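User: Here's a protein and a ligand (calcium ion). What would the complex look like?
Assistant: Let me lay out the input and then the predicted complex.
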Amino acid sequence: MNKTLILVVEDDPSVRNLISVTLKSNDYRYVLATNGSSALSAAATHNPDIILLDLGLPDMDGVEVIKRIRGWSDVPIAVISARSEDDDKIAALDAGADDYMTKPFSVAELLARVRVMQRRRNAAVTEQAVFTNGPLSIDFAAGCAYLGEEELHLTPIEYKLLCLLARNVGKVLTHTYITQNVWGSSWDNDVASLRVFMAGLRKKLENGQGSQDYIQTHVGIGYRMNKLN
Ligand code: CA
């Protein structure tokens, strides 16, 4: 029996059924909530390892649910949305969600998202002096990053970007979140510049080590550092 407990928040019975059947047949434990207020009390009562959250709930906006849960918990939250608009996903990610799925989604995608959340949960240990992910390592105290034995020659901005992604490994970070954390809030949300810096960083990360896919692009939304096994 899988020990991971998943809180599923979804008011649509057919989607809720699809998710619960999938989780059950893959040996996950789960609890169900059909609106925002029962989601908040279930999150407090059951202390789940992962939350799958529909954004369009009958009693409150899913983004509000995320904000309230983030007031006391950093449990990984994946948003499930019928809305294809990027604005909703971005609002959810900026409120503290970790990942998102757009309806309709496949069973395979659902399980893949859950695994990402599990890895994020397992990686969410207190800040360590040295971060490692595959051949990549970052010595935060020394301010150095390495790929295998070789030190990466990063610009100050590239190093800040790398540290931000690493500290949030497995989580999708929005353009706004990244630019505000790297350049400060006075910097306007210059996605084109960010893209250039990210391309430079990605090139250095992949240099000489084959094509380790460290940085995943979410078009129109942001970036995520993948946790390598
Ligand atoms: Ca809904």
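Summary: The longest strand covers residues 5-9.
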